Amino acid sequence: MLAYTIRRLVLAIPTLIFIAFVIFMLLELAPGDPMANMPLSIPPEVREQMRQALGLGQPWYIRFGLWLYQFFVVEPQYWIDAAFGTNFADGAQRIISFQSRSPVFEIIAERVPQTLWVVGMSYIVGVIIALPIGIAGAYWQYSWFDQLGTFISMVGFSVPTFFTGVLLIVIFAVNLGWFPSIYNTTLVVEDWESFLAQLRQMAMPVFVLALYNAAQISRYMRASMLDNLGQDYVRTARAKGMNERIVVLKHVLRNSMIPVITVIALGVPQVFGGAIITEQVFKVNGLGQLLIIAIQGSDIPMVLTLTFIFAVLIVAFNLIADILYGVFDPRIRYD
Amino acid sequence: MTDRTDPHERAEPPPSPAVPAGGAPDGGEIAEAAGSAAPGQSSTSLWRDVWVQFREHKGAVIGLAFLIFITLFVIAGPWIWQVDPADLDIRNKDVRPIYTWLWDREADVMWSRPLGTDNLGRDILANLMQGGRVSMAVGWVAMLLALILGTLIGVLAGYFRALDGLLMRFTDLMLALPLLPLLLVMMLLFRDQLRAAFGPEQGIFVLIVTAIGITSWMHTARIVRGDILALKEREYVLAARSIGTPSRRMITRHLLPNVLSPIMVSATLGLATAIITESALSFLGLGFPSDYPTWGKILFDSVERMERFPERVIWPGLCISLTVLAVNYIGDGLRDALDPRIRGR
């Protein structure tokens, strides 16, 4: 297993570099000019100097190599410096955003908490809702509960999140006035009042994403339970007079969880990507909104870094899912 | 129905078409199995059996009926409801839908504008029809493109051993790309070039369709490859090869017809995703130009005024959601109907 993990990790490096290259070349073709928003009164030679200052004068392979070096060498040095008070980085050039002229990773670090709060919470809520629905739906297959659960999960992944979000805003924010429609990032949780306010503003975005995630996971859970409920070992367990609760919740559930856990792991990076839309609907200024702003402003270092982080998440969680599969299912041997 | 995930088939979207482990059996077996299950029917063809089983699935039948209805609505609707969707009637702007009158007698309603007008006085019903045409067209074309690409790559990888490793690594790589951010980047990048080449509307149409198509073929390719690999080991393939069938005939005559059912199931999924992706792009403001309505675009334009005019977001949203729901139900029914283990049970 260790050898397999190491092999996969080594294989991930060329994959990631290739992905970075694809994204970089796509952005290289971009007609968008980061200078477009500057006043037209700037003379052409000054404009050219400003382009040079942004590092746009060099050929693409030098800029790509520089970005790779900054991402994999300089940035980790800064993190270590910040954590232990050392001075490895020694003032080396970091990845700088074209728009704000501050280091890309500082801006990302500012945005991560909002995204993690809303998206992370919604994923946890989604999983917590999905598992019981899947289990009960499979156990009482074709009962009214199962019919309802299947229908809701079908609706959950058919209705796009931007429509669920807008619908919830119309109902709960505009007509009933229960929840605010805009996520206020400046809110600091210090007492009970502000905690309640935080809960209220998180309620709708979390619900929208949770419904979407729960819809997908509960289908897997149900299918996997159904697969296992018909197996011979279940009949054996019942035949020896075992309590039905133990049969279902211990024998069947534990075996059914194997594929579901990998599905849950695989869903994590997609949640970050899919949250772009939900963040836009509820005006949560998280990573997704940052990406949209950066794309519109031709902020190449920001777009490149953010997209690459998403790619790293996908590759990492694919690996985690495969390893988890091997850990939980002794029949799977990778070596 | 089982949705199985194994490490080789990971990153599958939830309504994953479960591929029978042995691949799709050939037509003869199916006809036999179904024939024995339904005695009394003198002649049964494969597609007739599939249709009989499909009708058993209530959701799928309703879904099919709705899809036909909405298709007729967007195609034939503009001939019956002859209002120009782009017509600016500024004097009759912000008209509420006719049913608002039931609870609000003061509301500004008009019989000639049954679903009301927007802030520039454009008729919403006509816009829904026009927007639906574009949304459905994008969905169908993008799905077909993804399907052709996916089938081609899947068949090549499954049939020619030399290409297998390379093509499947490429597929894995594509699956590791963050697709929505890349789609957004692509929309921004090639917008101007394609506009210049094909004109403002066709250019964006080509761009959206291509972008969605080349980012969503991977699952089809994997499924097709898996099935082709299994089918290749069958005796009838060996028999065909032994009489000297060339590769091209082998693929078109013997292999493709037998992978048709998983392809059809992934077609329904592809249609649903393509419609959602197009409306998501429009919703993020990176889709079609603003005077060119699609369902997602109408929804996006109405969000600012949804507090006073909630109907303007609800109608296009309902159109998208119900269409996607219908297509997903059809996919579900089709999957059951095409699965010989379920049919005739």
TrEMBL record, chain A:
It is found in: Cell membrane. The chain crosses the membrane at residues 9-30, 116-139, 151-175, 195-215, 260-282, 302-328. GO terms for biological process: transmembrane transport. InterPro entries: BPD_transp_1_N (IPR045621), MetI-like (IPR000515), MetI-like_sf (IPR035906). Its main location: membrane. It comes from the Bacteria. GO terms for cellular component: plasma membrane. It holds the Pfam family BPD_transp_1. Keywords: Cell membrane, Membrane, Transmembrane, Transmembrane helix, Transport. Gene3D superfamilies: MetI-like. The keyword Membrane applies. CDD domains: TM_PBP2. It is a multi-pass membrane protein. Residues 112-321 form the ABC transmembrane type-1 domain. The keyword Transmembrane applies. PANTHER family: INNER MEMBRANE ABC TRANSPORTER (PTHR30465), OPPB IN A BINDING PROTEIN-DEPENDENT TRANSPORT SYSTEM (PTHR30465:SF97). Belongs to the binding-protein-dependent transport system permease family. This is ABC transporter permease.
TrEMBL record, chain B:
Residues 19-42 have a biased composition (Low complexity). It is found in: Cell membrane. The chain crosses the membrane at residues 61-81, 137-160, 172-190, 202-224, 255-276, 313-331. Its main location: membrane. The keyword Membrane applies. It comes from the Bacteria. Belongs to the binding-protein-dependent transport system permease family. This is ABC transporter permease. It comes from Pseudoroseicyclus tamaricis. The lineage of its organism: Bacteria, Pseudomonadati, Pseudomonadota, Alphaproteobacteria, Rhodobacterales.
